[in-house]
Structure to design on (760 residues):
């Protein structure tokens, strides 16, 4: 544990009464479809205000606490250790307490309108003498369903009749000189609240119209025709709305997969070798013009948003695999029998990528890759090449550490990692999701010795999100304890997706995309254990969102080190497909969070691009302690691209390009005599932080005279350490005066690359 972890404040008084444990139930799944499986397409078979009364017989009051881990807010808090969320976390040792004044309130969002029949209040010694229980449909207009001026404190059970999405405890008179203080607020609803969340048939799920599932009986010509159709359609479709997932059941296939935009190809086996592709899974740089000559193709710097996962590939004799990618293009849990070329320097450029949890039998040739991250992989044929920033953690067969010439930053083991959850088909035909276990001090793949440790979850326990599914249904499913599987497409949201239960899995297929249309966050996650978020893109909407995703509430301080929340292949975009605006893309308040390959991008090309159009101050803000990032790409934000306020943070590989479009230094400077904004800011209050293999680049093409004082800005403390740093002026367009603080050479037109081996 980090010695600087925030400690929870102890109770002011001991609990007054014993608290009965609440029971959380999940609806049983039943088969919903009757058509027989098709090998080619999952869509066809494999292809108001509260009221204080009601008519009719009374419905039975349920036994599930509808408030458990739901979003909670309050009029005030006594201090950061007593947040509103502590009253709905199911933990009798944590509490919400208010300021020492009247009135005060605590509100819980149940996610959808519910028929509320009972409320339980577990008061600490500082209780409410006079208070009201109120319900609301919108959080603005309230109806009182219970009130008292003679509250007794302790453990109160109150029967009520009312309907609302929100339940509020509104205190008007305190019994003590302290504030209001609740160990727990529990809300129970009627059993007959509607049809409930539809069940998923795990043997015949509807995975959406753009998910294609093949098995070995499918004719090779059918498979190849579909692959070619998708590749042709998505070759240049950089900002289109189509998304595709191509899934192979266990077996052997002859196929040439030319992987294009917004396409995921994945195996449905428990192990990569369960699905063998005899042919290629490749990415080509044959569409984007470089320079002024229309015949001069080969630029791979915009080969984004595609994925190859959980497959083995046997190349034709004498051939190599080309994997010409840049950001948001994971090569994950793969076994390649042959050589891979990350791009040929003679043909153009490539600008980043990830190999994770993979085995490559031949040599990896990095070619013109400017920076690349390889984690927990077996490079049996070794690695050849380097440009600016090649980083390896927990891998075998890597080149020796030798920075900066060649620029190989090598970390022997990965301190703590959970691999990405994945969809697979069990031997009896049931679709399941496997969640790999947390590993510490890991080296090599998770599957090299056979089936990895972890948890297998039936798709019956998932709610499958289709295009057009409203956020209210998604949140109702989450409230019932369901996991989410999000089908390929662009999903427009009129409300925030709220993940409140521990150990929830949210898994996207086909680079599926969430767009918050109303200025709300696309997704929030409560400060709970073990949430896994994987495989989706959040694309900012036209109304500014203060934050696109938030992990944990402000002031979160629970210890999640034994079961952290993790993000895998989660990407963010502001502008490019349309005008998008978001002040912060990702804010992490919880402790111990793991980031496993993320690209946070304020667009520099496409639609809706401009200094005053796709506005976005910060990409990543980390407030939690002991947060670890592997393969972190954050680019083009208008102020600090990354702000790290928590202690104990670690970053393994960082790639940044400063914004291309600052009009001048007068309008782009952080103050205090600094020019521009550093790309990576560690707060002055931080005492422990460490990073390996980090790079910052500038290309100020809107005004090449713009200057940034430094790439990295950190407190000068022995506990804050950086290894393997580089700054680059791309083509000499713009200037960065120093690499980190006041250390490192200036990069500009005559001197375009600067390295710092270690700091301090």
């Amino acid at each position: 544990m980090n010695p600087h972890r925030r400690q929870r404040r102890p109770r002011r008084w001991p609990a007054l009464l014993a608290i009965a444990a609440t029971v959380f139930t999940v609806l049983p799944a039943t088969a919903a479809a009757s058509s027989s499986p098709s090998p080619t397409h999952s869509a066809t078979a494999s292809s108001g205000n509260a009221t204080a009364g009601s008519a009719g017989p009374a419905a039975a009051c349920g036994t599930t606490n509808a408030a458990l881990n739901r979003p909670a807010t309050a009029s005030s808090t006594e201090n950061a250790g007593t947040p509103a969320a502590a009253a709905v976390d199911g933990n009798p040792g944590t509490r919400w307490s208010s300021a020492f004044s009247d009135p005060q309130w605590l509100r819980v969002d149940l996610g959808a309108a519910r028929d509320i029949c009972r409320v339980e209040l577990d008061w600490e010694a500082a209780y409410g003498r006079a208070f009201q229980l109120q319900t609301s449909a919108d959080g603005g207009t309230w109806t009182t369903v219970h009130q008292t001026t003679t509250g007794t404190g302790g453990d109160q059970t109150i029967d009520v009749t009312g309907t609302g999405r929100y339940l509020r405890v509104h205190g008007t008179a305190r019994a003590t000189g302290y504030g209001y203080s609740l160990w727990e607020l529990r809300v129970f609803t009627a059993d007959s609240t509607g049809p409930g969340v539809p069940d998923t048939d795990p043997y015949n799920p509807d995975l959406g119209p753009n998910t294609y599932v093949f098995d070995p009986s499918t004719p090779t010509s059918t498979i190849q025709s579909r692959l070619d159709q998708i590749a042709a359609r998505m070759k240049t479709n950089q900002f289109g709305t189509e998304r595709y997932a191509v899934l192979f059941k266990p077996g052997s296939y002859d196929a040439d997969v030319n992987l294009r935009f917004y396409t995921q190809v994945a195996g449905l086996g428990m192990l990569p070798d369960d699905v063998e592709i005899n042919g290629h899974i490749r990415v080509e740089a044959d569409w984007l013009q470089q320079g002024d000559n229309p015949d001069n193709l080969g630029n791979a710097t915009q080969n984004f948003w595609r994925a190859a996962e959980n497959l083995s590939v046997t190349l034709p004799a004498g051939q190599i695999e080309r994997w010409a990618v840049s950001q948001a293009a994971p090569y994950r849990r793969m076994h390649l029998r042959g050589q891979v070329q990350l791009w040929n320097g003679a043909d153009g450029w490539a600008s980043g990528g990830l190999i994770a949890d993979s085995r490559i039998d031949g040599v990896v040739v990095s070619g013109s890759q400017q920076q690349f991250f390889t984690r927990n992989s077996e490079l049996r044929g070794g690695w050849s090449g380097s440009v600016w920033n090649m980083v390896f953690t927990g891998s075998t067969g890597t080149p020796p550490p030798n920075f900066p010439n060649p620029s190989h930053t090598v970390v022997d083991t990965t301190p703590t990692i959970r691999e990405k959850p994945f969809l697979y088909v069990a031997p009896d035909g049931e679709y399941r999701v496997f969640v790999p276990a947390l590993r510490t001090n890991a080296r090599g793949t998770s599957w090299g010795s056979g089936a990895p440790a972890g948890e297998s979850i039936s798709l019956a326990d998932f709610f499958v999100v289709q295009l057009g599914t409203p956020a209210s249904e998604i949140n109702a499913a989450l409230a019932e304890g369901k996991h989410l599987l999000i089908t390929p497409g662009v999903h427009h949201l009129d409300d925030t997706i709220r993940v409140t239960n521990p150990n929830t899995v949210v898994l996207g297929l086909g680079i599926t995309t969430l767009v918050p249309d109303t200025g709300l966050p696309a997704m929030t996650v409560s400060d709970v254990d073990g949430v896994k978020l994987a495989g989706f893109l959040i694309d900012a909407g036209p109304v500014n969102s203060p934050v696109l995703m938030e992990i944990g509430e402000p002031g979160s301080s629970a210890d999640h080190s034994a079961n952290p929340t993790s993000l895998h292949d989660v990407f963010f975009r502001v502008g490019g497909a349309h005008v998008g605006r978001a002040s912060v893309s990702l804010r992490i308040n919880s402790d111990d969070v793991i980031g496993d390959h993320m690209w946070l991008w304020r667009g520099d090309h496409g639609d809706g691009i401009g200094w005053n159009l796709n506005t976005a101050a910060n990409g990543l803000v980390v407030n939690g302690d002991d947060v670890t990032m592997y393969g972190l790409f954050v680019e083009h934000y208008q102020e600090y691209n990354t702000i790290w306020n928590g202690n104990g943070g670690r970053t393994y590989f960082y790639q940044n390009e400063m914004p291309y479009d600052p009009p001048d230094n007068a309008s782009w400077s952080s103050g205090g005599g600094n020019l521009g904004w550093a790309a990576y800011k560690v707060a002055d209050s931080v005492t422990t932080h460490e990073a390996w293999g980090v790079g910052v680049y500038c290309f100020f093409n809107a005004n090449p005279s713009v200057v940034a004082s430094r790439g990295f800005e950190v407190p000068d403390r022995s506990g804050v350490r950086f290894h393997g740093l580089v700054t680059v002026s791309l083509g000499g367009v713009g200037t960065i005066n120093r690499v980190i603080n006041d250390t490192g050479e200036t990069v500009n037109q005559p001197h375009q690359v600067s390295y710092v081996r270690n700091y301090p």
Notes: Residues 220-234 form the longest helix (15 residues). The two ends are 24 Å apart (CA to CA). The chain has three helices and 52 strands. Helices lie at 42-46, 220-234, 471-479.
